[in-house]
Amino acid sequence: MSLNTSHAANGVVLYAGEFILLYCDGVTLTFDCDDPNMKGSNKGRIYLTTHRMIFRSNHDSKGLLSFSFPFHTISELGLEQPIFGANYIKGKVKAEVSGGWYGAASFKLTFKDGGAIEYGQALMAAAQAASRYMGQAPPPPYSPPTQFPYANATPGAYTPPPGPAPYGFFLPTNVFPEQPPANQVYMVEQPPPYPGVMGGARSMPGAAQTDPPPAYVTPNGTAYAYTFRSSGTPLTPAANSYGYQGPPPAYATGESKKTA
Description:
The chain is mainly beta and 260 residues long. The chain has helices at 116-131, 155-158, and strands spanning 2-3, 7-8, 11-14, 20-32, 40-49, 52-57, 66-70, 74-80, 88-94, 104-111, 150-152, 185-188, 225-228, 234-238, 244-245, 252-253. An 8-stranded antiparallel sheet has the order 1-7-6-5-4-10-9-8, covered by helices on one side. It has a 4-stranded mixed sheet with strand order 2-3-12-11, with no helix packed on it. It has a two-stranded antiparallel sheet with strand order 13-14. Pfam families: GRAM.
């Protein structure tokens, strides 16, 4: 939702209380839009946090240096498994005021060394968990972290609690075991301007302030996404649910897996 507002030096800038759930180097982000700074493909690193997804480009000479995807700005998220070519994550993202660009864009995220399905399932689960705290009110005005003073963050400041499902959904750290270099993560003192997977001090009015549902993980480690009613009450797990349609607060999953 915001362009070039989440990076500093060769790393990314987090809000206070924002934790990095998954990190992957070697991804390609492709946008289909009219903005010349975004259009086309960029190689870099991807961070899934408790509040958003952040892409950091490997090339500081290009127009797109970083891109922030708060969960409430993502829609039509799905996983594609083409017969030929690598699996990828697809979706749409909308801009917000002061986000550095306008309108909406379709995006595709490809992983050089695989893992798109596992990452995509974790992304969907995180987005669903955060959507329960959004309520019906629009998010507050966007305040990019780079407008505040920031400093290098110690790993303990952005590392989530231990365990395969610290926030009620499975994190495939077996597929993504790497951690970002400690000198490439910065943090501001301000909290995120929108709720995350565990809510937050700025949760939207009318949001359900309850704990997320317990993890539904099979013995082989497969995580299943939950679907939610408008009240936030979990329904039965949606097995092999590879996509959802529509903007928050409700992320209704739907299968988009391709078969031969």
